[in-house]
Amino acid sequence: MKKIVLVFGLLSGAVSSCMLLITVPFADRIGFDKGWILGYTGIVLSFTLVYFGIRAYRDTVKGGTIGFGAAFAVGSAIMLISCLCYVVVWEFVYYNFMPDFMDKYAAYMLAKAHAAGATPAAIDAQVRQLEQYRAMYANPWTNAALTFIEPFPVGVLAVLISAGILRKKTRTPGLETSLG
Predict the structure, then answer these.
(1) Residue 78: is its pLDDT beyond 80?
(2) What gap in Å lies between CA 89 and CA 147, rounded to an integer?
């Protein structure tokens, strides 16, 4: 189990991390509105490997049968490794190549508020909130925790769906699973 979890977890983490690395150089041109779409697309794509990891475990280790609980455990381990890879890459990129990320994000959010016609009180409240975010992002542990919760909910959903689809209590004699 360890080998399958590690291989698929690292592959999934590599996909999400590569998408992150590909989009970072173009962050200014992509913009924050479109950047989150690309980011979550990469995360969703990376979590398709949870399905394949559970399937590989079911077919090679468990002899073609697996319950929901075991599938959920394997998928969760794969997802956690993937999330940790994503966090490590973001921390490296953020502190080495994008230390001004929060400044740019704050400027974007304030410009958006001004363009929407926000009141001075609303803008002041947003400035205070952005200052809190800036302080949180300056702490590497808080930064890592906030980064971890970006892919985590998507990963949990991928694990639940994959475990539900792949659970198979008994092997059907004479029916080889060419579909998975």
Answers:
(1) yes
(2) 10
